[in-house]
Amino acid sequence: MTIMNDETREFVAMHRNEDVRELALKAKRVEGLDLPLALDQIAGWQIARKKLPQWASCEGIVYPPHISMEQCSSQFTAQYKSEIAQTLLAPAATVRARVSDSGESDNQTTKSEPQLSDSAESVMQTAKSAFQLSDSPESDTLVAKRAMVDLTGGFGVDFSYLARGFSQATYVERQRHLCDLAEHNMAALGLDQARIVCGDGVEYLRQMGPVDFIYLDPARRDEHGSRTYAIEDCTPNVFELRDLLLAKSQYTLVKLSPMLDWRKVVADFDGTVREVHIVATGNECKELLLVLGQQVHEEPSAPRVFCVNDNQRIDYDSASYTQGLRIGGKPLPEAKNYLYEPNASIMKAGCFDLVEERFGVTQVGPSSHLFVSATPVADFPGRGFAIEAIGGMNKKDIKRLLNGTKQANIAVRNFPLTAPQLRKKLKLADGGPVYLFGTTMQGCDHVLLRTSKI
Q: Which long-range CB contacts under 8 A does 362-365 form with residues at least 24 apart?
């Protein structure tokens, strides 16, 4: 890693609020100034100011080139991962409560458990002994001495937040320049428990002793640099490492592409997924997180699913809500006064029957993924609208619905036209206070709903 000299550091401090492209063209070449490094630092800080405000407020952080900053986790998603780890590894009483709720038993071994080699089985037994917690005062000491490993360190944002909950935290990364960055930045952040290892994560996993928690963020690009999504096409292939991960950790958190079908992924992991976390921010799905843990049931248990969109959060037992939509299961209310659109994490989870049950709303129709109610619903995980009018696609209904409106925000769900096509047909400009939804209601009727945001 190139360390900034005084001239470069001073330049960054003076110009970090300015446009990087203009600086690149206009900055004077001063003796001792490393302009490319300075521009990287200014651009990195400007991204971090919004994406990683805690890092941006820390003096001494060194940022990587632009693409690494664009691809790294945000503060919100990194903090959420830390929250997952701390909840999983809660003190003994909480751990026993979670075990009791799920019906787990330490003494059960079943034919559903992964088949391990003799050496891996030995490590598994050692790990099980190491992870036992009791009511004794020593249990607090065990928690205080928790250890974690990040096998795919990268720029180290996720690691920096996960490490705060552990007395021993190991970062593993095979690229030397990233290791150098991590060593510098973890020290700047005051993470004295951080240990930086430059090496291959898979080899480190094979040789290390058991720890409480492992984190992996497999690289989602192939050897040609093209983006990939399938788990078996990522590096490392977590399917191939599954048994070893189960042997070496109490829990493993895996970050995957939000493009994946989470139900298929759970099935492919053959009963070892304990939790599924679908994480969105700004109503955009960012991450699919899986918690892997040792299988202790005779039959694989369905994982608990957590849907997160900023401060909107719900969780549920996926065994109870696997179909998503009960077609014709609940008739529409006579008074359709309010319309609700679930957030991105709910849409990804597909738990629409759960939303009906928990919030007292009704799906407008099969595959439409919109809900109506007669009365307003507090704390709905998504957007809410007051319905002003409902009509069909005939000229008379459209004229009544628009009532002279020249602009509207348009969205479609399960509708024969795309939003741009509908906008063109209705000759409406974008924006304004009117929200127009095109959808298909029960009975296969294509309708338009004129609404206002609440």
A: 362/330, 362/331, 362/332, 362/333, 363/325, 363/330, 364/332, 364/339, 364/439, 364/440, 364/441, 364/442, 365/414, 365/439, 365/440, 365/441, 365/442, 365/443, 365/444
Q: Residues 204-218: what's their mean pLDDT?
A: 96
Q: In terms of Cα–Cα distance, which of 155, 145, 160, 151 is closest to 81?
A: 160
**What is the distance between the terminal CA atoms of the chain, rounded to a whole angstrom?**
51
Nearest to 307 by CA among 380, 237, 388, 239: 380
Read off the amino acid at residue 143: V
Pair 88, 213: CB distance under 8 Å: yes
**pLDDT per residue over 94-153, tens digit each?**
443 444 443 333 333 333 333 333 433 443 343 333 333 334 444 444 445 899 999 999
Report the number of secondary-structure helices (H) and strands (E) in the chain: 18, 16
The number of beta carbons lying within 10 Å of the beta carbon of residue 50 is 10
Longest dimension (CA), the chain: 77
Q: Cβ-count burial of 324 within 10 angstroms (0-12 exposed, 13-18 middle, 19+ buried)?
A: middle
The token duo for 266 is 């759970």
Pick from 404, 408, 444: nearest CA to 428: 408
The CA–CA distances, whole Å, from 95 to 63, 250, 333 equal 38, 12, 43
**Within 10 A of 160 (CB to CB), how many other CB atoms are there?**
26
For residues 290 and 215, is the Cβ–Cβ distance under 8 A?
Answer: no
Q: What is the pLDDT of residue 239?
A: 93
Phi/psi at 447 (5° precision): -135, 160
With beta carbons less than 8 A apart as the criterion, state whether 362 and 338 touch: no
- pLDDT tens digits along 235-270: 899 999 999 999 999 999 999 999 999 999 999 998
Q: What is the pLDDT of residues 141-167, one digit of tens each?
A: 444 589 999 999 999 999 999 999 999
Q: Strand, coil or helix: what is 387? A: strand
Token couple for 156: 């180290």
Q: What are phi and psi of 259, to 5 degrees?
A: -75, -20
| pLDDT per residue as tens digits for the range 28-73 | 878 888 898 999 999 999 999 999 999 999 988 999 887 778 888 9
Looking at the chain, how many residues does it have?
454
